[in-house]
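Bench notes, afternoon.
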Amino acid sequence: MSTSPGALAGLALSAAREAAGLVRERARGNVTVAAVKSSDVDVVTEADRDSEALIRARLTAARPDDAFLGEEGDDVAGTSGVRWIVDPIDGTVNFLYGIPQYAVSVAAEHAGEVVAGVVIDVQGRTEYVGHAADDTRPASVTRDGAPIAVRGPAPLAERLVATGFSYDRRVRVIQAEAVTRLLPHVRDVRRLGSCALDLCLVADGRLDGYVEEGVNYWDHAAAGLIARLAGARTKVTRGAGGLDLLVCAPDHGFEEFLEAVRTAGFSPVSGE
């Protein structure tokens, strides 16, 4: 069975499109909370569960020997060397409130490295697809089929940055204080509510950076690859609250942005 990144990306896109259609249809109805997870504000809906179940079913039917890591279901071991990482709705709170900023995210690892990723903006219907190079085709990263790249160099003061906030209230206090210190040094800060879509906005040049503590692997596996293929760099380190901190920016300005993030207090290493 082929492990070509291009072929894996094609399968991921097919499954993600079908799941996005399901989520779009559920959004027309009465969306309710099915359960809470890490805290009372960390919610899951039936649409999250059904979207993941659909993706699992499609991928398993096509590739029964692959492993699977999803946000809502049990991990599944595999024997093929390929593992799928799925976020069935990234931006569930936006989905719950009817705010059209949420995505379906599907990534494929081969031998422990992410080689294919798809992020679909459910309501905007925008499709971000990326895959690594292989013996038959070069690496590719696209938005609705057209190649994308990060924005060109800009002074820190002219960079538009996105962030997000943890479900842990203790960490939120730290994040809010860090954002307050970062804000005077950048153009502005956005909080849009979907890690995957924020990273894709860095990839296609509509954001200059992204930082958030409390992310999970399924939040950024696909979108992180898309950003890197488009010319960004990503780094996962320890945040000031003790959780995983994800930093993303174009490669040409990454070190300066990372230093600003550290100095603002997102990381326990101040950089001063």
